[in-house]
Amino acid sequence: MMIRIVFVFLASSFAPVLLAGGANDHGHSHAHESSVGEAAAAVPDRIVEVAMLDSMRFVFDPELESLVAGEVVEFIVRNDGRIRHEFSVGNAEEQARHAEMMRKMPNMKHADPNAVTLDPGETGVVKWRFAGDDTVVFACNIPGHFEAGMLHRVKIEAGAS
To answer: Total domain count for the chain?
Structure first.
């Protein structure tokens, strides 16, 4: 009888820890700090549509050739392909760390302030206030996609005084 009581106690003590792991797709959502800005709730200064293609390219409409510190951009991201893609905002070092994590957990699905992972036909939104003077790297860090060219770099320019 005593062994049964101890077993029930231990099982109930560890159950919340075991269940905290979440689903098998390793999805997550967490706060994110970046040297290139932060999530924004403000009305965007502009809206940019982003199509993600199986040719391992992002297509920005209008083209994304410049960013200004302080500017809020709402990215409406659409997966026009037949495989899962990701849209992530960060600098080169942040993207390298994220890519390493994705290699360890390739089925991870993001719903973070700076990243969305979308299955074919899905649409997501990333609204970002750019800051600093670093170069922003927009990337798909699903293993092999970045290496195949699914990235876009834009330098942040100083804002108006």
So the answer is: 1
**Contact present, 132 and 36 (Cβ < 8 Å):** yes
- Which residues, other chains included, contact 126 with Cβ-Cβ below 8 Å and sequence gap of 6+? 74, 75, 77, 87, 89, 113, 114, 115, 116
Q: What is the pTM of this model?
A: 0.76
| Structure confidence by residue, pLDDT tens digits, 104-120 | 776 767 667 899 999 99
Look at residue 52 and tell me whether its pLDDT is greater than 90. yes
Domain span at 90: 2-157
CATH code of the domain covering residue 72: 2.60.40.420
Summarize the chain as % helix, strand, coil (round to 5).
20, 40, 45
